[in-house]
Known about the structure:
There is one protein chain. The protein is mostly beta strands. Helix content is 6%, strand content 65%. The protein has one helix at 6-15; strands spanning 34-56, 59-70, 74-87, 92-105, 108-121, 124-131, 137-138, 144-152, 155-166. Strands 1, 2, 3, 4, 5, 6, 7, 8 and 9 form a nine-stranded antiparallel β-sheet that branches. A hairpin with a 2-residue loop joins strand 1 (34-56) and strand 2. The longest helix is centred in the first third of the chain and has 10 residues, at 6-15. Mean pLDDT is 85; it is low at 16-27.
Amino acid sequence: MSSPPLFVLALLATLALPPIAAAQTAPASPPGATAMTHHAKGPFDVKMAPQDQDVGEGSTLGRMSLDKTFHGDLEATGKGQMLTASADTPGSAVYVAVERVTGTLHGKAGSFALVHKGIMRGAERKLSVEIVPDSGSGALKGIAGSLTIEIVDGKHLYDLQYTLPVH
């Protein structure tokens, strides 16, 4: 298969420049639990492989697999699927993705899922990446929060703001 469509690469690059905060609501904690807010930061590598493409009148739909390796405070791998739609109008596109992250976060082993939503319309860019509620496992059970992405000199960087229940 060919490389990712140019609009997807442009969407991902422009959504992350400059850093765009995800929805800044306080991460939720399970009822009856006390939570402390933490930040995890570091670089990550990402590989995208096109799976399908459907070209139609007015838009093109695509699907890609995601493979990520996180470094820094989050030492983990991410596996996911991305769906894309680009309009015939240059600069208009959207992506949604779901990925499972498995590894250690500040030394705590487990996994959690992330949901992404990115929209590009002309010069307007919006990106939201949230931890899927109740998706945490192992020592990350009860995790909640959001992630921002920044691309600097071609390097992908993450900032994960999260809470974990304190029992």
